[in-house]
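Can anyone check this?
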Amino acid sequence: LAHDPGTRPPLAGAHAWQAGRIPGALLTQARRAADEGRTDAAVRYYAQYLEFRPNDLDAREQLAAHVEAK
């Protein structure tokens, strides 16, 4: 099938939608890990989340608190 270079292929839209959900999923996992006392996992998830949302000050504070707690 030929594809018009001026338009996005259908899967590109799906990929963009899925990629947009990643930060929220990482934040959810970080909070869950923290609630369950899994500090190493919480640190890992918060760090990954902050790669997407570096200006989230609350998440930065949470990451710092969990790093301190290690």
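Reply from J.R.: I decoded it. Residues 10-35 form the longest helix (26 residues).
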